[in-house]
Amino acid sequence: MKSGISRKTLDACFKGPFDKVEIGIILKNVTHKEVMADYRQFLKKETIRKAKKYLLEHKKVFAEIEKTYDVPKEVVASILMVESSFGENGGKYQVFSVYASLAALSDKKIKKRVVREAAKAGEDVQARRFRKRVDRKGKWGMKELLCLIRLSEQKKIDFTQLKGSWAGAFGMPQFIPSSFEAYGIDWDGDGRVDLDMLPDAVASVSNYLKKHGWKNSLAHKKAIRVIKYYNISQPYATTILKLAEKLKEKR
After folding, report:
1. CA–CA distance, 200 with 202 (Å, rounded to integer)
2. Which long-range contacts (CB under 8 A, 24 or more apart) does 105-110 make?
3. Residue 1: pLDDT over 80
4. How many distinct structural domains can be found in the chain?
C-alpha cells in the first residue's frame, strides 16, 4: 500500500477499543488557537527553580548531548519544561484515538456534527478560515494516524499503550508521530527511541532544532524562527528563549 502499511495491520487497528470517534477531541483541535496561548506561567520563580534543579541533577546527560548537537542545554531543558514539565504532564489521551478521530473528519456526517457543535460553542463556522482549518486538521490527522500505525507495525511504537495530549503529542518533548519518525534519537543505545526517557528526549529535541537550522551564536530573531518550527506560537518561542536565559543565570 502507498501508506507503507499492510492491509492486515490496518484492519486490525480499526477493530476493538480504538475505533471510537471522539467529537470532543476533534472540537479541541479545530477550535484551539495556539497563538493566543498564555505561557507567562513558565517564567515564574518556582518554575525557573524547578528547571534549574532538574538541569543540575542531569547535567551530564545534557552536557554530552549539547556537545554533539551544539544546541544549548538550557534551550532544550526549557522546551522539556514547557512541553511536559519534564515528563510529569505528558497527557492522558489515547494518541491513536486522537488521530483516528481527526481522520474521521473525512466522513461528511462527522464533519457536519463537528461544525454543529462548534457553532454551539460560539465559533464562526461560516468563516472561511474555520472551514479551512477543519479540512486541514482532517488531512493532518489522517497523515499522522498512518504514520503512527506504520511506526507500530515497525515495532518502534506500541500505540495501544501510547498516551499523550489532546493534540496527539506524546513523550517528554511532546512529539507527533511524524516528528518521532524523522527526528527521534536512540541516545541511550537500548535499541529503541523512548521519548519518556531523558537521554532520548534531549537528543531528539536537539536533533530537531539542529535539523531546522540551529547554529552556535544564533541571532535572537533567527533563534525565534527555529523554535517556531517546533511550535508556531510567537509567545511560545519567546518564552523558551527567556526561560533559557534564566537557566543560564548563576542565581
Report:
1. 6
2. 105/26, 105/134, 105/135, 105/137, 105/138, 105/141, 106/138, 106/142, 110/21, 110/23, 110/26
3. no
4. 1
How does pLDDT run across 9-27, given as a tens digit for each residue? 555 555 554 457 899 999 9
Q: Which residue has the cell 527553580?
A: 49
Secondary structure class of 51 (helix, strand, coil): helix
Tell which phi-psi region holds residue 7, choosing left (phi > 0), alpha (psi between -120 and 50) or beta: alpha
Question: Domain range for residue 210?
Answer: 7-248
- Cβ-based neighbour number of residue 23 at 10 Å: 15
Which residue is associated with the grid cell 461560516? 126
Query: What's the pTM?
Result: 0.92
Q: What is the mean pLDDT of residues 45-49?
A: 96
Helix axes 128-153, 108-120, angle to 10 degrees: 130
What is the average pLDDT score of the chain?
A: 91
For 86, the grid coordinates are: 519534564
Domain contains 2:
no
Is the pLDDT score of 147 beyond 60?
yes
1 is a domain residue: no
Tally of helices (H runs) and strands (E runs) in the chain: 12, 2
How many residues comprise the chain?
A: 251
Give pLDDT tens digits for 201-251. Answer: 999 999 999 999 999 889 999 999 999 999 999 999 999 999 999 999 976
Judge whether residue 44 has pLDDT over 60: yes
